[in-house]
Amino acid sequence: MADTTDVPEDAHPGPDDGPAGRRERARLAATRYLLGTAPLTVPERLRSLADAAESPAPDVYGTGGEVAALEAELCEVLGKPAAVLMPSGTMAQQCALRVWADRSARPGVAVHGLSHLVLHEQSALEALHGVRMEVLTRERRPLDAADLAQAPGPLAALAVELPLRDAGYLLPTWNDLVALVDAARAKGMAIHFDGARLWESQPYYDRPHAQIAGLADTVYVSFYKGLDAVSGAALAGPADVIADARAWQHRHGGRLYAMHPVAIGARQGLARLGEFAGYADRARKLAAALAQLPGVRVHPDPPQVNAFVLHLDVDADSFTEQALQHAETTGTWTYGRLTPADVPGWSSTEVVVGPATTGWEVAEVVEVTATLLRRARGEADLP
Ligand SMILES: Cc1ncc(COP(=O)(O)O)c(C=O)c1O
């Protein structure tokens, strides 16, 4: 998975954009990476896609070729009758929730206040579709059935982000998820899963993807997070709903003339679904070891998926600078840009475990983190 943690979702850092550009140059020039997946150069990426292509004929407006093959694979994995490849998750979710809102003629959808829909999509659902987002809670925890009991008025659908990234990659237990879904159904709501990281969530539930997706009517999945495609998303669900979602995709301008590069990358990713249990296991081992360092806390403890948040009692800029200097001098990219935490003097960053991380011993990760911490605090390196 590309380590997208250093790229602010609403920013567009270019190579010459000051500190962001310096970081990006160092990241791309590095020869070893701690988090996610080592980035590919453009020629490497294109060669890999060319090698993986199975269909010589391109899709036309998303019909046929690799796109059709991908959508069929998704139906199989997610246990849904239909699926549609979309350029982005932002578009996929808007299409899904618009369809549910139109079908129920109810004015809004229930969401978590820390969900991507609320925090990172420029209020697209309300601005473009007039669909109101009813925030059930803003607390750092997954939604639960009790939140729904408080929800005002009839709502068309419930959107559940699995895991809730901005709360620290948190998942509800299976029983709590079932109770939440049951409570929403009892209110006549459709269920939509933001499964941007459904692949990463599956080992926690230890159930087939189709069983997890089976709790929802529509599921969005992403291809460029854990699955490391260049971009892309898909929406899966009942055939009539997906047909309507295709119409909204078209209206959004998302019916691209050809999408086979995205589809090939997505299919490469789907071949790696079995890796995520190992990444989650590694994340738990890393978190346990890092939490032993003075001035370090992990959240959640233990991590539920392959990612967790590291809280450090050090200034964000100082640690970021030390990590950057380490990358520039050693060619090893460890941590990107830290963000100041709510507690003064503390900072936070995400640790996302992927293929790159498996090349590191746990002790090595602890050592480099401790070194960066010491330097960021202005302490001398140990002899
Ligand atoms: C939880 C979640 N939902 C939705 C999205 C939107 O995906 P996209 O960038 O493909 O629009 C993201 C992207 O980071 C995400 O993390």
Descriptive tags:
single chain; 383 residues; disordered N terminus; binds pyridoxal-5'-phosphate; alpha/beta; seven-stranded mixed beta sheet
User: Which residues form runs of ≥5 with pLDDT under 50?
Assistant: 1-11
Cα radius of gyration in angstroms:
21 Å
Strand content: 5-15%
Order of helices and strands: HEHHEHEHHEHEHEHHEEHHHEEHEEEH
Please tally the helical runs, counting DSSP H or I stretches of 4 or more residues.
Answer: 15
Helix content: 40-55%
Integer average pLDDT: 94
Number of strands: 13
In this structure, how is the largest beta sheet organized?
Answer: 7 strands, mixed
Instruction: Tell me the strand order in the biggest sheet.
Output: 2-8-7-6-5-3-4
Distance between the termini: 36 Å
Secondary-structure-derived class: alpha/beta
Bound compounds, each kind once, are: pyridoxal-5'-phosphate
Shape: globular
